[in-house]
Amino acid sequence: MRKVHQLALDTIDALDAGDDDDEESGVLDLAGSLVLMVPMVEALLGSDEDPSPEECGVLAHMLSFPVVPELVLICTAFGRRIAEEHLREMVRTNKRVIQRGATTAAEIDAIHSERSRVYERTAQMLWGKVRRQPDEERLVSLARILRRVASHLPHNMRCETFSMLGWIFWARGKRALAAAYSEEGRCADASNLIAQFVGELIDVVASPQWLDRKAR
User: Fold this and answer.
1) Which end of the chain is less crowded, N or C, counting CB atoms within 10 A of the terminal residue's CB?
2) Do residues 28 and 98 share a domain?
3) pLDDT tens by residue, 51-81
4) 8 closest CA partner among 72, 52, 48, 64
């Protein structure tokens, strides 16, 4: 059994042990997915083997949570340090929510929308507004992994994988292929946040700035 699969099992076991009364015990939640996301992505990208069906299931479940697909793309394209810094900023933001006693959705949203250098940099990367070149070899590897994951899912559960493939091909300058994957993602779930983001991105941004620099 590969290291990444054991990593997934160990993480699930740790979460389970910490909350015996939870009806969802033994199933990764958003917090667990964020904890596992970076090491799992790095382990998968570092392997020449295709992910196993079990690993595909864990990854598909993780990707179903908000923010996780975007951070997987950032981690793959620009490195784990950027993704980990974003995660630390999320922790700091949640601490501010608790410290200020925010309880309503409006109050919590207001804190999360406060100006943050880390969040702004991540957003600029996702929108292609940086000249830093993403790691194309890692993006190609992630595309292979996502196709493998999608092959184990029914069409209506492929929204995240198809939308992420759309971003990957857009980032590599293959806009027509990106649009096709994005449309498949929106057909699977038009209300999904990653599907909406990638669809809008491809519609309004012809190509990322790093491709302009590469062409010179």
Assistant:
1) C
2) yes
3) 999 899 989 999 999 889 999 999 999 999 9
4) 52
Same-domain check for residues 16 and 88: yes
Residues 8 and 91 in one domain: yes
Q: Are 56 and 152 in contact (CB under 8 A)?
A: yes
Q: Looking at the domain assignment, is residue 154 inside a domain? A: no
Whole-model pTM: value is 0.83
pLDDT tens digits, one per residue of 21-51:
444 444 567 777 787 888 889 999 999 889 9
Alpha helices in 79-208 (DSSP H): 80-99, 105-112, 117-126, 136-151, 159-171, 175-188, 193-204
Domain assignment present for residue 68? The answer is yes
Long-range CB contacts (within 8 A, 24+) of 26-34: 27/61, 28/58, 28/61, 28/62, 29/65, 30/65, 30/66, 30/67, 30/68, 33/61, 33/62, 33/65, 33/68, 34/65, 34/67, 34/68, 34/71, 34/87, 34/90
Please report whether residue 183 resides in a domain.
yes
Residue 211 and residue 189: Cα distance in Å, rounded? 30
- Domain span at residue 192 reads 159-215
